[in-house]
Amino acid sequence: MDKKEEFQNKLQAQLDDWSAEIDQLKAKADKAEAEAKLAYYKEIEEIRGMQKSAQDKLNELKEASEEAWEDLKEGVESAWGSLSNAVRSAISRFS
Questions:
Q1: pLDDT, mean of each 10-residue run, the chain (95 residues)
Q2: Domain limits of the chain?
Q3: Pick from 51, 52, 72, 56: which is nearest to 7 by CA?
Q4: Hey, how many other C-beta atoms are within 10 angstroms of the C-beta on 47?
Q5: Nearest of 84, 52, 50, 60 to residue 7 by alpha carbon
Q6: Cα 42 to Cα 12: distance, rounded to the nearest angstrom
């Protein structure tokens, strides 16, 4: 397995983990009181948007040539960092 494929697999696995965590957050939000529920849903919607953006970047990376993927790597890592921070922050607030 080459570096690009290894990197893609790692990112896809992380996206899958976050998707499961976001689903758990939604389940908690569903049980919250009305006012808190609205805030939780808004935050989940924002995280889902970030998740879609990260998935789009991963798809772009998958389509990139062997030479170009290194140039895209930094942008992908930045999107991953933002999404990771958002998920962790939401988990701590929802707990």
A1: 88 94 93 90 95 92 85 86 92 85
A2: 3-94
A3: 72
A4: 20
A5: 60
A6: 25
Q: How far is CA 31 from CA 11, 24, 94, in A?
A: 31, 11, 11
H or E element that contains 28: helix 3-31
Which amino acid is it at 13? A
Q: What is the DSSP letter of 80?
A: H
DSSP 48-62: HHHHHHHHHHHHHHH
Q: What is the structure's pLDDT at 25?
A: 93
Are the C-beta atoms of 55 and 83 separated by less than 8 Å? no
Amino acid at the residue 75: G
* pTM (2 d.p.): 0.85
Tokens 């789009």, residue located: 56
